[in-house]
Amino acid sequence: MRPRIIFGRFLLRLGKFIQSLSVMVMRPDDLIEHMRNSYAEPKNVEVWSKNSLVDSGLHEDETIVLKKIPLKKGRLLLLGIGGGREAIPLGKMGFDITGVDFAPDLVKSAIQNTAQKGINIEGIIQNITELNVSENTYDIAWLSAGMYSCIPTRKKRIKMVKRVNASLKQDGYFACQYLWTPRHMFSLKVEFARKAFAFLTLGNMSYEKGDVMWDDSHFVHLFRSEEEIRSEFEEGGFEVVHIDFPEGEVRRWAVLRKPVPNTRKN
Ligand SMILES: C[S@@+](CC[C@H](N)C(=O)[O-])C[C@H]1O[C@@H](n2cnc3c(N)ncnc32)[C@H](O)[C@@H]1O
Fold first, then answer.
1. Ligand 1: does its nearest atom lie under 6 Å from the Cβ of 112?
2. For 21-257, which CATH superfamily applies?
3. Considering the entire predicted model, what is its pTM?
């Protein structure tokens, strides 16, 4: 191969590596703030609020997962409501929706879009990692779009799971989507270089294997074993009713139940 092609390829790989270091420089709260700023940008508000998306209804996997929950009505806490795509069909089914989102214009847009279809929802502007809603109130909590993986650190994820748990009534359900890869993302050498970079920049010392920038605006933690994801849900106080690992799919669902006292397995 010609030396200039080899050099060009090296630069492309170097560029990708340098980009990947953004996750090592930003600490967990910076990563969340970075995502909030991106979603709040007018162009992204438009993406998640446009009619073609909002009117597209539930995705096939969402319909399947909903059928695994034995509740057909009640109060539903929709985490990361966006422009209201899921709120419309769920509201039409008879659920009473409270939508949470950290992008104020998306909350506004979800309220407007659902109102146009005759559905009244409650909108709350809040970061779901600091979820603060009424306790023992909701029958179902819903988190789609792989958003569980967008929460940096096991500690923050478990804290959120505990808060979701507290918001649910006994025997309430949490449908939660996360991202998965069985692959090892980086070699030991690259992993070491990334950690050294975090150390030298006083950056993200909470980095966990599987943490990557998905695109310019999204942090994601890719789960790599069933045990890893199950243990977070169980530590958060839930019983895992269903968890799926379809071949080749990156997005996966878990259906969790808040156990009634005395029935929880230890
Ligand atoms: C990928 S979009 C999905 C929107 C909607 N659920 C849908 O599928 O159409 C993710 C949504 O979650 C919100 N979001 C992301 N992280 C959040 C956080 N930490 N707290 C609150 N909202 C968050 C974003 O503002 C955005 O509206």
1. no
2. Vaccinia Virus protein VP39 (3.40.50.150)
3. 0.93
